[in-house]
Amino acid sequence: MSRRGTNIVRLAAAGAAAGLVVAAIAVPAVGGAGLGFVTAAGEVNLKPLDLAEPPPAEVTIVRDAKGGEIARFYEEYREVVGFDEIAATMKTAIVAIEDFRFYEHGAIDIEGTLRALATNLQSGKVSQGGSSITQQYVKQVLLNSADTEQERNAAVEASYARKLNELRYAMDIEEKYTKDEILAKYLNIAYFGASAYGVEAAARRFFGVSAADLTLPQAATLAGAVQDPNATDPNLGRQQRDRLLKRRNVVLDRMAELGKITAAEAAKAKAAKLGYKGTGIPGGCESSKHPYFCLYVRHEILGNPDFGRTAKARLAMLNRGGLTITTTLDPAMQAAADRALKRYVHPSDAPVAAQALIKPGTGAIKAMAASRRYGRSAARNEISYNVVADTAHGGGIGFQPGSTFKTFTLITALQQGMKLDDGIAAGAGYRAPAYSTFKTCKGQNIGDPTHTVTNDEGSPGWKTLKTGTWGSVNTFFMELEERVGLCETVRTARSLGIRRADGKKLQEYETFTLGINESDPVTVATAYAAIAARGTYCAPLAITQITDRDGETTRYRPKCRQALDPGIADATAEVLSGVFTEGTMSGVGGLDRDAAGKTGTTDDYASAWFAGFTPDLAGAVSLGDPRGSQQHKLTGVTIGGRYYGAVQGASIPGPIWRDTMLSALRGVPATPFTALDEARFGGCSESCRPDKGPEDGEATPEVTLSPEDVLE
């Protein structure tokens, strides 16, 4: 006998044995019918096999604090719906074309299976499946739960072993669920093409309607698509659409043949155009109205162990979990930030402005905005990273924050007992007396006596904590940092959450107070929010709660600690409030409520900042050129249609911050700052202005005072 003949005999024998078993399970038991086949079933181990059914991948929706949708994340675009949320005509169409005896047979359709068996015997291989809807559901579950390529191949391999296991799983499914439940599960897991998984996503993607509102021709179209969704994917072109239209008409003819619709209804539906709309699939940060906040949320979940033990688990939860994520973003405050940025910086400008708003006392991120659109198109001058945040949240290396860091030296001086009118004689230039003048927190000597620090803003002379801050005098703050300590200043900054945007360690050089460490607006705004909250530092918070697909909600509370003595924070606010009335922001003006802040202009105008706060809201604005701020200075530039010889913190970032706050806080009752403790911080100690000494504005020699001359 030939080899081919031997194979046919073996297949025929297997088919005969299987035929008895198939008959036993395919025909619903009536009375004692089917009992005679128990032994046969046992011989081929054709018993129900429990199928693990992990929920299918489902869309995760991100919402703002008011419930508005920000973005959608997904591995497969799917929205699971109930049986009653699917149009009756859709259910009729899919049963008619895929398994018209679905409600009559058991786990498999014996007639279809025997027909497939005959075809397979003739071809000598498993070429036709004859699968019931239940078996198709089983295959999809196995495919969707596969973690490896090997498991995926096993789920679809053409073998009798796979078909046998599929049948055993199908028997289990038929025992556990009603036919309606099985049909709903199948319609929710099936792929229809055009990146649409499940009937609800397909209805919206193909026709812009819900599954409950599908018409006869629309339902027939979707029912026809499941057989070979890639070949009939209408999103791929005319050829695929033509195939889909023909397949739709096959479904309509079959429905008429089975008496589910009349011939007239079929003819009318076949005369209709395909009607594919290609409705855009919402999701991804590029399509979000608030892309930078969207990026922050995505990276927060992927990088934070609070949301899953492993990175793989967190990614699966985000892209497959069907979650509803409620965030801190306030749409009105976000709109205020967007408008202010647009007013001063154009999307086409080379420099980019970025802003973050933080709620004091909670760390809640209320807005994240940038002057450029997020995306990957160089032609549209889009920016491909989160310019508002650090690298851990999708950002870049940030920009040097300049004089906004002087605030940390001011706080350190107050912590060491200095009063607001205590002062130092600041020269026109500052050089460290020796290489050992400053010490890092590891005790290393730092301080370059060959480098001279000069003043970009303010004038030399006798400066107090107030006047030196208001004028943002570099030499004053170098003298002040020398006296209070470099490490002590660094520790103050760290206590307020200051970290480098690139995730590296803070650079501890004598110019730390001048803001040499590249930072991001979220980090700086959060530090200033801690001052506004009277010293309570709260880590940035973007997510307030997550509701899973089963309706269980997990809430996330602010992570706060007392970083500063409340009196120290009050005194800092007192000094910084004068920046608006007596200092670098006096030409811009303040708000209609208590406010405080600090401009930031870096060496040679590489970048410009403003960071400030009210008791109700804090914010930070950065401005720099993402091509490289040191190579592309903010000098001789046109920004927002206006030419600037040199951009300082009060030139653009300050006005952006002010306009944002005026709009964002409209309707919010004004909260005043806590009054200064005059007994503790008012006046001066031993370092009050001497009777004889240089006046403000006079050039002075480099002066060195001992700590005893300065500290109480």
From TrEMBL:
Coiled-coil spans in chain: none
Residue intervals passing through the bilayer: none
Domain Glycosyl transferase family: start-end pairs: 68-255
GO function terms (MF aspect): penicillin binding; peptidoglycan glycosyltransferase activity; serine-type D-Ala-D-Ala carboxypeptidase activity
Keyword Glycosyltransferase tagged: yes
Residue ranges, annotated region (Disordered): 685-712
GO cellular component terms given for this protein: outer membrane-bounded periplasmic space
Reaction catalysed by this enzyme: [GlcNAc-(1->4)-Mur2Ac(oyl-L-Ala-gamma-D-Glu-L-Lys-D-Ala-D-Ala)](n)-di-trans,octa-cis-undecaprenyl diphosphate + beta-D-GlcNAc-(1->4)-Mur2Ac(oyl-L-Ala-gamma-D-Glu-L-Lys-D-Ala-D-Ala)-di-trans,octa-cis-undecaprenyl diphosphate = [GlcNAc-(1->4)-Mur2Ac(oyl-L-Ala-gamma-D-Glu-L-Lys-D-Ala-D-Ala)](n+1)-di-trans,octa-cis-undecaprenyl diphosphate + di-trans,octa-cis-undecaprenyl diphosphate + H(+); Preferential cleavage: (Ac)2-L-Lys-D-Ala-|-D-Ala. Also transpeptidation of peptidyl-alanyl moieties that are N-acyl substituents of D-alanine
Domain Penicillin-binding protein transpeptidase residue range list: 357-623
Alphabetically ordered keywords of this record: Carboxypeptidase, Cell shape, Cell wall biogenesis/degradation, Glycosyltransferase, Hydrolase, Multifunctional enzyme, Peptidoglycan synthesis, Protease, Transferase
GO biological process: cell wall organization; peptidoglycan biosynthetic process; proteolysis; regulation of cell shape
InterPro entries for this protein: Beta-lactam/transpept-like, Glyco_trans_51, Glycosyltr_51/Transpeptidase, Lysozyme-like_dom_sf, PBP_transglycosylase, PCN-bd_Tpept
Presence of keyword tRNA processing: no
Annotated family: In the C-terminal section; belongs to the transpeptidase family.
Name under which the protein is recorded: Membrane peptidoglycan carboxypeptidase
Organism: Nonomuraea thailandensis
